[in-house]
Amino acid sequence: MDPFAQGLWDSSSAAPPAAAAAELPGMQVDWKETGEVHVIKADLPGVRREEVKVELESGGRVLQISGERRREVQETGDTWRQVERSSGRFMRRLSLPENAKVEGVKASMEHGVLTVVVPKAEVNQPRIESAQMTG
């Protein structure tokens, strides 16, 4: 299963109907696994920390990043020549692997990059006992 396949984006101010939503343009996500943690980084340029929610769903198996990028207020006399940056509500869901330890999840945001660190649970490796051979 592709954990990145569940991205949703709604450019209207209403709650997104799941079937009509598309992925947030520009919300690129990197996911790195080390020996101890999963590190997920999401680019959220122009979004303040207060506008982002990081939640665990489905018993901690799904990490959900959501929020809203607000459109700039148009002042009287302003004329927009071009508008390409997306605004509106966004949501991205990532399925966490079995070795994710959801009790210690930490999130931080700096310079428009959200970083979520998910510790890995220790996995008990099966022990192979050596057998003594008799002749």
From TrEMBL:
InterPro entries: A-crystallin/Hsp20_dom, HSP20-like_chaperone, Small_HSP. GO terms for molecular function: unfolded protein binding. Coiled coil: none annotated. Residues 11-21 have a biased composition (Low complexity). SUPFAM superfamilies: HSP20-like chaperones. Residues 18-135 form the SHSP domain. CDD domains: ACD_ScHsp26_like (cd06472). Residues 1-21 are annotated as: Disordered. GO terms for biological process: protein complex oligomerization; protein folding; response to heat; response to hydrogen peroxide; response to salt stress. Keywords: Stress response. It comes from the Eukaryota. This is (wild Malaysian banana) hypothetical protein. Pfam families: HSP20. Belongs to the small heat shock protein (HSP20) family.
